[in-house]
Fold these 4 entries.
Entry 1:
Amino acid sequence: MHSIHNRDVRVSSLSAHFEPVENCVVHSDDVTVADDVSYTSSSMSSDLESMKPSNIHVFSSSSTLHGFNHIFALHHSSLRRFAWTVAFLTSLSILLYQSSNRAIYYLSYPHVTRLDEVAAGNLTFPAVTICNLNEFQFSKITKNDMYHVGELLGFLDKNYALCCNTIVPERQTLNFLNIQRSSFRHFNPRGTFSMKEFYERVGHNLSDFLLACNYRGRFCNADNFTTVYTRYGKCYTFNSGVKQPPLKTLKGGVDNGLELLLDTQQNEYMPVWKETDEITIEAGFKVQIHVQSEPPFIHELGFGISPGFQTLVSTQEQRITFLPNPWGKCRNGFDKSEHYHFPNYSISACRISCETLYVYLHCNCRMIHMPGKERYCTPEEYKTCADKALDFLVMTDDQLCVCETPCEVIRYNLEMSTLQLPSTQASSYLAYKYQVSEDYVRKNFAKLNIFFEALNYETIEQKVAYEIPGLFGDIGGQMGLFIGASILTILELVDYFYEVVKDRTWGRKLRKNTDRSPTREEANNKTVSVMVREQAIFPVITNLFLGVVCCLYIYIILVVYKCCNVPHILTTESGS
């Protein structure tokens, strides 16, 4: 009984300390729902703020940028963070300096020149243009010719009187001119005088001055030559490619080239009483070696050979490749509207076209060597306008007729040597063979040999010295050396700036909507709504943005790679 009583006392004692559940009332004025939600929201907001991707500490802790995490590490001392800041900024400054140097060097568009020797199985023999320095054969000038061109050639004045009486000409020349002059008072000239017909009739004929022709040991003749008109009048081009395909050479050496024996015909040279553009004071031939696609510009680019000598010309083909703008100044392309007279662009074609246009604009005519369909100048227009116009183009220093170098050029490097012709023992033989005197042989005969020194050609090619891949490689190397960054690090920075912008715009609106104190149910609904929006909208936009950035980055890489691998110039082909 005693134990039972004690147990009842303990139970009643414990019961006295606790009230029934019905008596437990929660007073609303002690803890409000709003305060509870506000506290919970404030705590969550603080935690979320510190975990936002836009937070610099979050970014620095995960960035691959070397040293960046030490600058914003809160557990480091201020002195240590300052030291890391100085080190990072110093490395960044050096990076910017080196990168700017590389960029400046790239924008200077440097180039290098590559030289190479290429062996060939065969080579196209060049075109060879030959002109006698004397334009007109004196014996072929008629009375009508003298009436029209006597003043142009310096024989007559404007009154048809003999010019330059202080000079004593040869008796034969004087007699010829007096005979022509004596009948001028009663001479009835032809109605039309054609300079084209005059040059064709009075110019030197190939059959008259070409005594012998051999190519690779085989005889050649006038059929292998094409008539062409230059500043020297009627000229001839061997292997022009017009009548037949260009000839090939299979071996080097003098026996595998062209050999010509020429007669200067000094007995047909015009007497010189006065210096004019149409009268020469030299004797011999002018020769130009050029590619078939290029017209001869022999008065500027030709070399001379003299009578009484054998001239040996050893040549080597050079294929030169220049770079267009901005690395160089060559012309890559051909505008037929500007140089429609020729099928291909070259400096010679450009110069001839420009001179033709200049003379036509100033004289309303063209000279005999100029292409086109305009009328030919008269002898009077030659003297008063056309010759002076060409002389002005030579003397002037402005930009008239300055032609750009084509990006693809074929030139022929020349090495010349001479031998006396004929020898003492051979003069009588040559005089007997061609039915002339020995003195005539010494004063008029000239021999020309043109050949390849070896069956190879030289390539001179300009190449871009510094391209975009090299620039990116150098800058990338500097980035890795100084700050440990790469292209992916740049994408990290882009992603971080996106998070900052997103937080400053959309995040601010979201925070404004959560500033008022909602009920528990509203708080729960809005929290769920915000979480759904954060989880549904932001990741989608983030992924979309990053996808666009990645696609843009890949596109830039492909474009740069394509641009860097597109050839700036066409590859030179054999025989072009």
Entry 2:
Amino acid sequence: MSSSQDTSRHMYRLASLYNGAALVQLEAMHWQTCRKPREEVPLFGPRVSESRKRTAYSVNQCVAAIDFNTAWLAFCIEGLDFDIEEVTFEYPKPTHEVELWLCGSGCNERQIVTKYPHTILKLIPNNKNEEAVVADATYAQYSFDDGIDTYNAYCATKVYRADGDSMREELFGRCFEDYAAFKGYAWEQSCSDAAVCTTNNVMFRELSAAGGVKAVLSMGAEEYQRTEDSILAALKQEMEELRLRLEWIYFGDADWFLMQLANVVMDADGAGHQACMQSYRRRNRPQSRASV
């Protein structure tokens, strides 16, 4: 296989792994899930299809998906023949119009998902003769069939406009820098920080155990799919365990609330997270402020 074919395969597979990881995170850590005892009050009714669940999880979560996965992606692309940018489109073009109803606390407001700007990851080969690839982890909110395309095809079919006035391209890490600089409410911040740390730990551990990033991305088709499935299953298990722990804190003793939240984040700050953050800082130094 030629070098260009290797690079293309690596980009598509990393895009697939990112999209899969983001869906696992959104399913486990959606804020409504952690604020309800899920076994007693499921977020969705029994007749809601999996595709509709993916749509609901994905709405307005494109930046969060990038935030949660930036550090381990920075670890992965060290030594590979492509880079990553963040691209925001002002006018996404959904296959079907998706309505969002904001309810609760006296609010009953209808919004159309297309009115939000949409941010994706663009994987750019070092060889400029090769095509860039889009990884769109929250594609389901626009009823797109999948979240991986060539960049040219994405611009031609999934946005209304892709010119200088309707899009912006930024360095990979811009979303994560904003995330790291913003300190919100203790609950939301702790949930997010713990999810970031947990994800980095799992991805670093599982990729390393499978032979390393390049070895995984270079596997034969069947072996790669088994490995990706195994990695995502490990992530799902640990994210579910994190969600359950957070649920116990949310409905637990108010006097120990902040201390328990802090303990969750500290417990998640493992060797894998530190390794991924080192990769991120090597890439983004000296501008990086990130310290999750």
Entry 3:
Amino acid sequence: MMLNLSCLYMIYYIYQWIVERDLRFDKELRKYRKKVYRHLDEKR
């Protein structure tokens, strides 16, 4: 039982970390995209 609990905890922790990282990555990507679009707009 104890082993199962710690396994679940590890899985949960890793899952949270991945989600958090993905969200951060998404934000950075949006920021970058905005910059690129702005740059393209200026060129037109």
Entry 4:
Amino acid sequence: MILLQSQSRFLLQTLLNRVQNLEKAVELDYHWVEFNDVRYHILVSTKNPNVLLLSVSLPTPPPEAVFMGGLPVGAIEAIKAAYGVVVHILDPPRDGFNLTLKLNLAKLPPDEEHRYALLVKIASVREVVLGAPLRVVLKHLASRTVVPDVDRVLALVHRPKESFFLVSQPDKVTVVFPMRFKDSIDTAFATSFLQEFVEARRAAGLNNAPPCLWSPTPPRELNEAPAEALSANAGFVSFVIFPRHVEGKKLDRTVWNLSTFHAYVSYHVKCSEGFMHTRMRRRVESLIQALDRAKPGGEEKKKSPNSRSFKRLDLYGIVMVLEFCFNIHASKTSACQLCNLLSLDCSHIGAFSKDTNLAFKLVLKNCISNFKEGFMFLNLDGLEGRTATFDMHNAYDKAFAWETDLSANKVAIDLVLARIKKWKDVFSVAMAAAGVLEDSLPIPE
């Protein structure tokens, strides 16, 4: 399982790059959004490169959550305590944001280690602001007291228009999360995940972890909470925090983990859903392979001479056809090659040696019949278009001195065009000869 980091990685990297390159005085204007609809904006001008404006927009609070001046209770005090003189709060903030901080980079500590620690704290402004009221309650828990002048059930915002609840007592604080998900599949995964999450608390080695409970209905601690805030389709998760869980450095970790618990669950729900999809795809692939192996092998059909299909000729085949049609002294070998190219039955050539004229007329008739269908695939316009394309590339080659070798292509295209021009004349003669043969000479079918 993974726990999210409190600092914004993009914000921290931007601050580090800015501090390391102050002398360049580069203007910055960055907008970005992180999970739970927390938006950031960084603005740096070239007129004052040591000043950086950081604006933060928080999730829209629900009606039951208490905000003061657009910020959670105690946020201003938490910012001043965390950042000191380095950060100044602008009032009012920039339009569209809940908070705008003015960072004076010239006042950063000179020591590299302390400077880096402060930049990490600035990059964790989300934790400082949203976790401020929770931090106040847990600090009083560490001293075994209750925050004065605060309702027994306190609603804190953690997602847009959603809140979780704190029920404070001197010796413990109960934190209750109504778990809501928009997608029904996510709801099913989350319900199963949370039930297993509660069971994992009982494992050995987790005796000191906060007790965790899951319930499909609101716990009785929330009897005083407004009814509209208790709608949850994945149940309610409750953590009981004791003073030992917030002692010393444990306080910051507890505040962050509780503030981002819903995001933590959502992350693992999506991971589980992706894992299930992968397993399902692999299973389907294995079943398809099993079905393919179960198919009986089909017998190859033997083609008869009458069922042979027309085979498109290539350039070499057409040259052979033309040469054979006008070469009376062609050998029987070339006749068989011609018949193979034309998908003819070579048994007709058996009489070639006895009756050359009959064999020639038979081959010529079939040759012309196929030639009528196959000749136009050469597409003279297409070849001329290729030549024009080559000329364009050749012009670019000469203009920009590109290292291309198109000479071989040019020669090949010129040869093909020359042969096509010759074939056009031969084709007209062949068609005329075919007409004479078909009209005057009987050729057996």
